[in-house]
Structure formats: C-alpha cells, structure tokens
C-alpha cells in the first residue's frame, strides 16, 4: 500500500483508520474520501488530501483513483444495522451498487480493495458459540444480507478477475473518539459515555445477550495487517473472523463499576435491535486469521474499560 483512498473517512472507523494509515505507513499518501454533509475537520482535514467520494458515483471514484494513482481502496461506506432496517433500499444501493462500482474500478485499474464484513453476516441458523470461519450464513437483516453478498461478490472478483480483495468480519466496535452511527452494538459505546457523565444508562439490549466486541485499536490493526499480509498464505479472503472479547450488558457494566461504582443501568429493550442481536453469534472462532496472517488482539474487556474511561474523562470532563 502506498497511495490509499479511504471511502467513508469521517465515520466511526474511517476517521481513525485514515489517521493510522497517514502516520503509520511511511511515504504513503492517504486520501480522505467523504460525502457532502460529512466533511473532514481538524487534523483529518489538515493532515492530507480530501475528496468527495460517493460510492454510487463511479466516474467520481475513477477520477480520484487516476488523480492520485491509488493502489488500495478501503471501502467503509455503509448504513449500520439498525439504520439499514429503516432504510433497506438505500442500504442496498450504498453497500451493493456502491461496491460493484468500486470492484469494477479495481478490475480496470489494478487496485486492491478492503470492504469489511461483520458479525451481522451470520444468522439464527449459524452456530452461536465458537462460530466457525466457514459456516452457514442466513442473516435476517438487510445489513446482514448485504454483508454476505459483499463477501461473495468480493471473492468472485478475486477468482474471476484477479482483483486483490480482502476483508475481516468486524465485531461490535468500541471507541472513545467517534460515536457510532446506528449499529446494534452501539450500546457498548454509549454505556461508557453515560458512566463517565454520571448518567443512568438505558440499555436497548436485553440482559444475557452476548455479542463479540472489539476495541478500536485492535480493529484498526486488523484492517491494516490483512492488507499487508503475504497473499500466498491466504487460504481465505472474504472474510476473516476476528475476535477479542464477548460480553453481555451486565458484563460490561460490571467491568465499568470497577472504576465507576455508582453506574446505574436499566433496560428498555428495542425490539428491532434485539431481534438482530439474537441472530448474531455469541463468539467467533478466529483461528484462521491467526494462522493465515498472524492476527492477535491486544485488548480484553478490562484493558479496554480502563483505557475508555481514562480517555473519556479527558474528553468529556
């Protein structure tokens, strides 16, 4: 990777990944792609080039690739699970038609592509504990449907045309930097904000609902490492299970109370998010990622909680 376009650079993942790529890969040029209304600001704008990059505008994307001689695209454009259920046609347009535009450009211009998948690609018939790398995927949400299709289409372009497509299945991602935008696992970020602010947390996910989660630094490491991996060692491509921790609302609340004992939490379950959460794995088996490209997370629940609280206190108080 040398000349990189990050599409969705101002989102929860993109804002941090763009900066990691700019600071962590010597000699790289990283273009922050965004849509109008979501312009980059501050250090994200000041530290490198930025361009309007709408995945549904193929000519616009191709022009950016040519202008900057792009060799790698990180395609982070998506509507998250809860939002996609409200806007299913828009989700399909962004996540499928947009992906097709990117893959066609990649085929024509020899560009590598990372388009993340998710635990949302699984469904109720998937084994919930130790979910295998290769298993049945029958999701019941539009978000999940697009993620399965993303995996298949990305693999198709690799095997049919030789496009260098790679991806990981992200768990729920937790970060103190940028708030999430409508995902089923968002509660696991929001509870930290409530705790640090001294507010009661109203949890939209039922007690006992386990889901895979990951701290953002580990997720960013995975997104970079998979694209730097030796292709000759990749048996899989789209998409690798990656995991670091699994907990339910009571588990994360207990971890927070070690540092903020007076955290109060009650439940008002959102039936849409709960239905989605119930169809997702409790925990994923990431042994293929560990074997094929050396995946290894650095953060568990306690390490993440300590770091989240420390940084949110600096940010909010």
Structure characterization notes:
This protein has 317 residues and is an alpha/beta fold. It contains 12 helices and 14 strands. It folds into 2 domains: 195 residues, NAD(P)-binding Rossmann-like Domain (Rossmann fold, 3-Layer(aba) Sandwich), CATH 3.40.50; 99 residues, UDP-galactose 4-epimerase, domain 1 (Alpha-Beta Complex), CATH 3.90.25. Helix 1 links the parallel strand 1 and strand 2. Helix 1 crosses helix 8, helix 5 runs parallel beside helix 6 and helix 7 runs parallel beside helix 9. The mean pLDDT is 96.
Helical content band: 40-55%
Order of helices and strands: EHEHEHEHHEEHEEEHEEHEEHEHHH
Oligomer state of the chains in this structure: single chain
CATH 2nd-level architecture of the largest domain: 3-Layer(aba) Sandwich
Give me the CATH fold name of the largest domain. Answer: Rossmann fold
CATH homologous superfamily caption of the largest domain:
NAD(P)-binding Rossmann-like Domain
Helix vs. strand class: alpha/beta
Taking the sheet with the most strands, its summary is:
6 strands, parallel
Spatial order of strands in the largest sheet: 3-2-1-4-5-7
Shape: globular
Count of folded domains: 2
CA-based gyration radius:
19 Å
| Beta-strand residue fraction | 5-15%
Mean pLDDT: 96
What is the CATH level 1 assignment of the largest domain? Alpha Beta
Number of strands: 14
Which regions are unreliable across 5 or more consecutive residues at pLDDT < 50?
none
Distance between the termini: 39 Å
How many helical stretches? 12
